[in-house]
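FORM 12-B: Structure-to-Sequence Request
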């Protein structure tokens, strides 16, 4: 993000902020690195995923997302894939995804 957040602001994000009239679920927000230019790298672990949620959460606390990188989606880890690359899912990964959507 484009600035360094205080520990109070990080705690606010972790508890959840109101976006579009609904409070977000609690999440994990961990500072990873503060750059010399004042930018801050964060690791954010969401338990829900609204459209553009991280960008909107940061905007709510006065920060702008400079770069966003997803490492994992549910049980699927990105691993060593480069942008635009794809891979086949294993049978276990397919079964795990099916369990997520089964009643």
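FORM 12-B RESPONSE
SEQUENCE OUT:
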């Amino acid at each position: 993000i484009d600035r360094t957040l205080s520990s109070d602001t990080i705690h606010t994000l972790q508890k959840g902020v109101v976006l579009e009239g609904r409070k977000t679920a609690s999440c994990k927000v961990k500072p990873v690195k503060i750059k010399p230019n004042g930018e801050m790298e964060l690791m954010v672990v969401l338990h829900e995923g609204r459209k553009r949620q991280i960008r909107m959460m940061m905007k709510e606390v006065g920060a702008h997302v400079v770069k966003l990188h997803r490492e994992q989606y549910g049980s699927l880890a990105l691993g060593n894939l480069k942008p635009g690359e794809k891979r086949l899912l294993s049978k276990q990964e397919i079964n795990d995804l099916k369990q997520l959507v089964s009643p």
